[in-house]
Amino acid sequence: MPELPEVETVRRGLEPHVVGLSIEDVWVGDSKILQVEAQRLTQDVLGQTIQGLSRRGKYLLFELDSHYLIFHFGMTGQLTFRDPNRPDCQGFRRHPVTGLQRALQHAPDRHTHLLIRFRQGGAVLFRDIRKFGKVFLIEKGEDVLSAFFGGLGLEPFTPAYNLPAFLKRFRNRKLAIKSLLLNQAFVAGIGNIYADEALFNAGIHPSRKIRSIRIVERERLFKAITQVLKRGIEYGGTSFRDFVNSDGEAGSHQEKLMVYGRQGESCHRCGTLIQKIVIGQRSSSFCSTCQPRGGPQPGLCIGSRHEAAKVPP
DNA sequence: AACCTTCCCTGATGGC
DNA sequence: TGCCATCAGGGAAGGT
Description:
This protein is α+β, with helices and mostly antiparallel strands. The chain has helices at 4-18, 38-45, 144-148, 163-168, 177-182, 192-202, 215-234, 305-308; strands spanning 23-28, 52-56, 59-63, 67-72, 77-82, 93-94, 101-102, 112-118, 123-128, 134-139, 275-279, 282-286. Helix content is 24%, strand content 19%.
């Protein structure tokens, strides 16, 4: 599921391919994913040049001459570059060892819903099996982006993501901390995988009420969030099922996960079996020893937490 | 206002 | 072999 690190991976992979190219043709498959009328999309972007690629939370932005073309990947969205000088992969294959789907460069198929072809050659394909993804088109203008992203919270890796701002958004509610992390109005870009990983790094049980989280724990969470996101980007994103980068290749961060998807396996730090529960309709994996339900236990040395954590082989 | 549930959608998987 | 139920979940919308 593309979260901040996966979207950033796509952005970085796509950027050198597409910046400077001008749009020659647009083809729409299932227009359900479009948040703009297909005809208007085609009409408005034809002939425009891609000025740059940026990201806000889980959104990927194509800056055009007069518009922003904005993608959200939902659960299974894939955005790949199709290079005319490279052969297409025949169909979709499963990786023999990891079982992950490896699409590589591909021709449009029944799940391809948008294709943007460039005058200089090549195309960008948006493919989305479950169709939870969305494509937006907004005209440039004063503050259009701040209006569009008005509901989004702090952006990690920017000056806006600072401890005072983070603590300020920590309202003392009854909600589980896990649910707060999934709320894009709190910190933008965190999804189920990185929420679980950040809570593990911070030593916080996902079910704990927001108001019960102590200041020192909030500070640990503040650091843990950027730690896990950074690590996700370093390993090219997490490919649990469908995620592929702009070249159609899987990421490798799934091999580095500490808790997500590891229920029944032993904790890399302490050996306790990882548990899975449901919080707010979302699965949550955690280690009951490293993330005690009652909060920090007297005598537990929190400071050594990160040093003690072994990286999966 | 805060919080919870339902819905959208397809493919993989397991039971029978 | 097929058939059906279940699960995965981001975010919007509707309900309490």
